[in-house]
Fold this protein.
Amino acid sequence: QVQLVESGGGLVQAGGSLRLSCAASNITFSIGAMAWFRQVPGKERDFLTSINWNGNSMYYVDSVKGRFTISKDNAKNTVALQMNMLKPEDTAIYYCALRTRFSVRWDYWGQGTQVTVSS
């Protein structure tokens, strides 16, 4: 059974940094891409950034461009999210997701990690 486990969330002051990690296990197929999303209670889960597994194409939404950086380790099946210049509005539960090579949707999800940014 595929598992995605996030870590690295916590409480940080505005302007600070956090680094989230996501480890995928029991991978027996080709990964197409991995991504980070976030969700505030009562709202939809929002896409933040993704990275292709073959090559290094990365995508960011405007709200995090220049502040967040996604990276990957193909050998370890891990993806990280470096978050700098954090703002109170970045407070949310952060989820990693995985898409298999020929899929058009995000097939697997982690359980989420809480990030709280105090003003």
Summary: The mean pLDDT is 96. Residues 24 and 98 are 8 Å apart (CA to CA). The chain is about 0% helix and 55% strand. The longest strand covers residues 31-39.
